Every structure is written in C-alpha cells, then in structure tokens.
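Please predict the structure of the following assembly.
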Amino acid sequence: MTLTGIAEFIASFFGLPGSSSVWIVAVLAAAILLGFMLLTVLILIYVLRKLLGKIQARLGPTRTGPKGIFQTAADALKLLIKEDTIPVKADRRVFIVAPILVFVPAYLVYVVVPFGEGNHFIAKDLNIGLLYIVAVSSINVIGVVLAGWASENKYSLLGGMRSAAQLISYEVPQALAVLGPVMLAESLSMQDIVKAQGEGLFSWFIFRSLPLLGFIVFLVASMAEINHVPFDLPEGESELVAGFNVEYSGMRFAFFMLAEFAASFTICAIAATLFLGGWHSPIRGFLDNGWWTVFWFFLKSSALVCLLMWIRATYPRVRVDQLMEFGWKLMIPLALFNVLVVGLYVALGKGG
Amino acid sequence: MSEEEKLENTETSDKPLKPAGKASPGKALAEVTPPDPRLLALAELLQSTFGDAALESVVDRGMVTLVISPGTLLDTCQQLKTDPALSFDYLACLTSIDRQDHLEVAYNLRSLTHKHEFCLKVRLPRDTPEIPTVTSIWKGANWHEREAYDLMGIHFQGHPDLRRILLPDEWEGHPLRKYYVYEPDDVPSEQGPPEHLLIQLEGVE
Amino acid sequence: MGPQHPSTHGVLRVILKLDGEWIVEAHPDIGYLHRSFEKMGELRTYTNGLPLTDRWDYLCAMTNNLVYSMAVEQLLEVEVPERAQYLRVIVCELNRIASHLVFIGTYGLDLGAQTPFLYCFRDRERILHIFEEICGARLTYSYIYPGGVSGDALPGWLEKVDAFLDYLPPMMREIDQLLTGNEIFILRTRNIGLISPEQAIDWSLSGPMLRASNVNFDLRKESPYQVYDRLDFSVAVAEQGDCLARYHVRVAEIGESIKMVKQCLAQIPDGPTRAKLPKTIKPPAGEVYARVDTPRGELGVYMISDGTDKPYRQKIRGPAFVNLSILSELLPGWKIADAVSILGSIDVVMGEVDR
Amino acid sequence: MDWHTCSFYVLSVMILGSALMVVSLRNIVHCALFLAFTFMGVAGVFALLHAEFLAAVQVLIYVGAITVLILFAVMLTQKTIGISLKQTNRLAPLAVLSAVTFLCMIAVIALNTTFPTSGQHTVAVSTQTIGSAILGNGSYVVPFEVASILLLAAMVGAIVIARGQDN
C-alpha cells in the first residue's frame, strides 16, 4: 500500500510507460506534503490565537464554530474573497512573482523533514538533507527584497531591505549551529542524524557535547530568519507603517502569511529532529516503532511551536541596530564556539 | 468695574502693602482669614529688592502679585532667577489676560529650592501688545508664549519660533480677546464689542 | 509621524527631519484636538463649567475636577468638610493608578509587547467599575464639585475600594515581571531620551518627567492640598532621567497611591460632604492659581473672577503641554525607533495638550 | 526518451532561455531575477548528475548570496524604479564577433573530445569524498586555505572601504 504501489496502479490505469511511475510518486508526495502543510498552518494559526488569548487572560476566537475552530478557515476564506489589488505604478510581474519566491522555499523544505521512521515517512531522504535545507531557505531573501521593491512605496522598500539584511546576517549563525549535529552524526542526511540519537533521552544531541548551546543558537537564529516576534523588524508597526507586504492584499498576502507560519513549523520540526532526537521516544525501545514514531515527532515539534508562541506573547521588539549587533557580535561567535567544542568532543570521542 | 476701583485706591495710598482680604459677599466662613505670614514676608522681600520698578504689590487669597512695567521685565526676571535669595528657577505658568482697556501677562514663578512662589504681572497697551520674550531665561516659556501670541495676539520680541501653535496658520484674529466673536460664515468682527457681549459686561450688580 | 500613527497616543503630529535612521530635527505640531476650553469657560457659570473639565485630561478627569473646584474654593475662601476632602483624595489617587496602568499597557504595546496591555486594562476595569458605582460615569465623572463632592460614599463602597487595594499588589508584581525584568524592554529604554535635572527644571517639566531626572519636587509634598499633609507617603524619584527611569517612577507611584488610599480609608471621618454655598456662586473679584499633581504633572488653573457668576479668565496649565515642548530639543540625535519609546515615556494625553 | 533526458532538456532550455533574458531585458531588476533562475537551472543540472552537494552549494552560494548581492547593489546605488536601460550600444558588433568566435572555439573542443558515454549513471559523488578531497591528507588543503585567506582579505577590504565614508 506504499506510494509506489499507488503510482504503479495509476501508471497502468492511464497506460503510461512503466518508468513514469517515479514521476507520479513525486507528484503524489508533493500533493500530500502541500496538503499537510496547509493543514498544519491552519491548525497553527488557530492554536496561536487560542494560546495568545490564554496567556493574555482573554478567550481568543469563539465565534466561528464551537470554540472558534473554523476561525482560520474563515480568515483564509476572507483573504480569498478579498480583492487582489496591485498598485498602479508597481512592476506587475515582479509583484506577482515575489510572494511565490517567498512561499516556495518554505514548502520545499518539507521534502527532507523525517516525520517518522523508515522511508515511507519521509519524502526523499537526500544524503545532503541539512545542506539542502540551508540552501533552500536562503532563496526567500530574494522574494522579500523583490516584494519590497516591486510595491513602489518607500516604506515597503525600506522594510524589504531591512529584512533582507536581517535574513542574511542570521543565515550564518543558523548554518553554523546546524554543524553541531552534523558532526555528531557524521552525515548530512536527516534520517542518519535521527538514527544517531537512538539511545533514549541522554543520547539526544541537545545534551551531548555542550548542552543546550547549539540548540539555543539554532532556535534564536531561526526565529530571526522567519521574522518572529523579538526580531519582527520588517513589520515593526510602531516604526514603519508596515513591512514589505504593505501593498499586498487578498490571496497574495495569504502567501506571505502561509510562508511565515509554515516556516515557523518547519524550524520547530528541524530543531526537534536535530536536537531532540526526531522521532525517537525518550525511553529507549519503548513505543519506538511504526506509527508511534510519528507521534513522538509531532509531540516534540508542537512543544517547540508552543514555546515560540509563548515567546511571541512576552517579548517586545528589538531595535534594528541592536538586532544586527546581536547577530554579528553575539550569535556568530557563539555558533563558532559551539562548532569548536563539538569538533573537539567528536575528535576526542574517536580517540583522535 | 471692581478692577478699576482697586487701581485707584492703590495709586492714592502711594503703594503701601495692602492685605486685600476684605469681606466679600457670599462668604461662607464668618471672619476674614488673615493672609499667611510667609506670603507677607515674600511680598516684603520682593518689594525691597524691586522697590522702584514695582508699580503695585498685592497679597490676595494665597497668592502674592507684583506688577512691574514691561520695560524692566527682562532684567527683573534675570535677577529673579539668579539672585540666590530668590532663585525663581521654575516658570509654572504664563497667562495672557484681556482687561478690555489693556492686556496683561502674568508669570507664575516658583523656586524649587526656597519652596516659595509668586505671580509677576506686566500691563501692555491694547493696540501695540509688545513684550520681550523670557525663553532665554526659562526655556519652558517657549510654548506658553506661542499660545499667548496665538490666542491673545501678544507679540513676544526675540522669540525663536513665534508662530501659531494651536490654531491653523491661516486663522485670522485672536479668539481669547473679549470682543472676539467667531461667526463661522463671515470674517470675525473686531471693530467693537457686539451688543450681547456688552450687556453681559455691564451686568454687574 | 502624522496625526494618524499607531504610537502617537492621539492626534499629535511630529515633523521629523531624518538623516537615514537618525533624527536631525523634530517639530511637534499640535492643535488637532483644540476645543478652546478657555473661551468656553468664560461663557459658563462656575457650576456648569465643571463638566467641561472632564474633557481636559480624559484619562484622569478626577484631578481636573479637583483643580477647578479648588480654584473656585480659593476664590470664595470656603473650607471643604473633612469627609469630602478624604473622598477627593481617594478618588484622585485611584484615578492616578488607572492612568498609570494605561501608561504601562500602551508603553509595552509601543515597544511590541502585547501581553502587559491586556493585564493592565483588566485591572483598570475594576477601578472604572468602582468609579461607576460612586458617580455613575467611567471616564467623565464630574464628581468633585466646588464646595465638596457630588455624592457621599454609598454603604459598602469603601469596602469595595479596600478589596481592590488588596487585589492590586500581586497583579502589579505580575505586570512588573512581564516588563521590568525583560532584557529587550530594558535594551529599548535604558539611557534613551536622557533629560538632565537642569534641563528638566529649565523646561519646567513636572510630575514623573521631573522626578525621573532626580528632582525631588511633588506638589502633594511641597504645598499639600486637601488632606495630603496627613498622609505619610514617599515621593518616587529616579536618577538617570531616561525612559526606564520614567517607567520606574510611575510604577513606584502606583505603590505609593495604594498606601495613601489605604490610610485615607482608615482615617476617613463621618460628616457632611458639601459646604453651604449660595445657589449661584459669585466669588469676589480676584486672581488665584490653583495647582494639583496629576499622573502627568502639575495641572494648574489661573482663574480670575470679576464678581459676576462667570469666570473672567480661566487659563489651564496642562502638564503634558509643557512636557511635550521639550520634544524638539529631546528627539534630535536619536533613531526613529527611539522616538517611539521617548514619546511613549512622556505619557502624552492630547486632550489637555490642545485644550 | 526516459524522464532523465527529458528533464535534462527542460533544464537546459530554462538555463539558456533565462540567460538570454538576463542579457536582453531592459529593466535591471528583471535581469537579476532571471539570473537567479539561470543559477537554479544549473543547480538542477548538477542534481541530475547526482552531484547533490554541488547542487545545494550552487543554490546556497549563487542564488542565496550572489543574486541578493547584485539586487542590493542595484537597489542601493541608483533609483531603479521604472527606468529602463538601453541594452545595446556602439560596441554591439564587437560583442557579437567575440561571442561567435568563443562559440566556435567551444564547438571545436566539444567535437573532438570523446566523452565517456557510458550508459549507466555516473558514480555518486558523496559528500564524504568531497570532504576528504578538500581537507583530507595530501589533497587540496593548501589551495583551500589560500582561498579562504584571500576571501578574508577581500572582506576586510570591503569593510574598510565602506567604513571609510563615515569618519
């Protein structure tokens, strides 16, 4: 009943040549991933609003459906119906391409995320998994800059440039922080990294070598990467009126929102995989096979997502120069130090 | 007009220090409360330092008032701020008053060190209300003077940025003047007091 | 930063001349909320001029009523009964707590922290409920009349105030933890918008703006009015004179106000709540400058009476009007993001700036 | 005509097409965008050849850094909104000439070298082999270190020049 089976059936059904089943598997996997991504974003937005409400001593959405369940669906519908305005002076083509350039990388990263044990829970276990993630996530910088530039208004251009500078300066610590687990697992592929953390709680990379440092550096750098609250400079409402997405409305604005929330789930998933032992259960061997692995994976990622939302509720915004200073003068040295320590740990561990 | 009659009796009695707590209609308490001795001491001090320039000094209901001529304003204020015995370093409030026959500017000054305060008043002719600015002494006066210029039409010479502060720049007339009646449809009339305002002024029994 | 901007607390327009991210010049442009209270005051009798005062500083209407009534009482030289003076101090200090809660909430919102705002407004709701019980209004109270207060405390009202005073301190600790200890909040406010003591005095700032620059001057201590001389409280003063110091002064003032109201509740005597005044108040001719310490600073009324039943001139000295005038000297040299936090720390209410 | 060759043709059309657009378009930001698509196409070809490491590095370096650098340079230096450049100028004939000669040269080289056209896929170049090639014993360590020092010098130079404007 695996995907390939379904693909062969479809290939024979339509009388396509046998070899094209590989294409069909890819298309099917892409469709499943897209569906999964939209679903998680819907749930994520709803949980965020409910959680923020809880933290801020208020209820959160209650109108739409029991306990406000269909709130995000209502938002999505509203965005769909809303008129898609394009500023007259704006450069039409770039204006349309920019949101896609921001949305696609967030979607591409899902290819390598290991939802569970074995091959049928991961779209394609590339043996350069992590490098692929870092490479793909560097594409959305172009989308952000072009979105800012194409909407022809100086505020959004300023916002676009600022967020591009932020993305670039935080890509470096993120990439370095990822090196830790790579060295410990001696492989770039995500499944290998998870397998290397197999022996229960204390074998997770968060505890091995310098505890927590790599994890914190990665999480903070990724938060800056997706413009999460302490670093949400581009849409700093109180300063510039709005960031690069000020001129977007309707479906295109939905692309940006979708990209942001999908990215926030992906970085939690990657953080869970790299540092919290992916789909392994905390106790060795206990409930560690089949569908249970998927359960552990989602448990860890959603825990991290809630942590992110908690941070969103409590922290004010950082100023632009403090952000840059924090990035270059603190995050990068920390990440380098982490790489050094993990390197020593691995080298000593192997007896030189 | 009670204001005029107060002026006459001070001229005739060659500017003595007069406690003005005279009995007044509608007083709830039985007798007149004598003004606070500390205020009398302050009035005494001011009288002695500015004897010649002071036209009139009144202690009335908890406030010492000293009236001086516009010419001597700048150096009296300078002395008020720098003189260690006085050291009025805090300008609490600057009020512009339209007394029909003349305009007045009242400076409420306070000393944070000696914890005493008083009101310095200057009288200006109605047609050319010109007075030097005190922003060089107390920067806080900046917006007060702009507001007095905007609403009362008093021109402060040497003010760094004298333009209307509350009303739109192209507004004519100064609303706080007694005769200023703003008919929205036509140009505000400043020729003379309209009838209904006059009646109200003479309505004092 | 136009009149419609999320962080200008009302219709204030500041014309900023920028060099990249840095502010070179700043000219506040006010007057968008100018309703000319001073002219209106001259056309109304003393009693029906009072409801006007609620619209001056709409976050702290009780102190506006108080300063207007004190000016009239000084003109009449009438003594207000003890119980009325205690009730006045209770409601004014409660109003100060409510206004400072609004400040903490909106200041957090300016810098991006959403949660404190909701906590502060939840607590402020309780104060407004208490006010509603005693004078029927949530914002425009017209509770303090020349000669006393409009209505005596209903049975059980003082106990409600007492219960609120026990409820507030733990909540204040919660809000405190959210903001005061928050490194990013400190990063955005420490050493930003520095005002030296001489500068503060020269620009005649008042209230928390003055006391945060290490100048220990509080009207309730210097020239105590009503029953403030019978209450022992300490004046909250901070040294640095930056945005953080102003925040700390206001938070400390909430603590002091709680202490004061507690003492008032203990000392409040029985007795009448209004002095006997003639039907139409006609104070003898004269001039008076009454002043009160509001959450924003010294609110003064220079009232001149000419013996008739209408004030001849009524000048309103708004604390935020004067505190805002320093903006043109304060903002240059800082960044735009700092302008937001400096403006927020001045705690401007446009109602009494524009009058 | 299995999917391997057909996707190769698709990719090559994409690369050549967007490269042509880069040269011929009037609006400079559009050129930068198409430059990014060219690089992505090249990364696709690398992936086809199972050189995944190179494909990822290609995307990371070229698309993520160099194109953004060009975009930054373009936007910060001059008012780019709405102006269109004249792509051709007096030197057009000379350019065409040099392009044609370059084309012939490549054609000659391509024709008489015998590519190893073995049927099965080329051996997968895994990251381990690349890693040991760069830093392993007796391999390209020295050139790798020299290159990094060169880059460092360039970066320091850039910072000095940029900082030069302030003081």
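The mean pLDDT of chain D is 81. The two ends of chain D are 64 Å apart (CA to CA).
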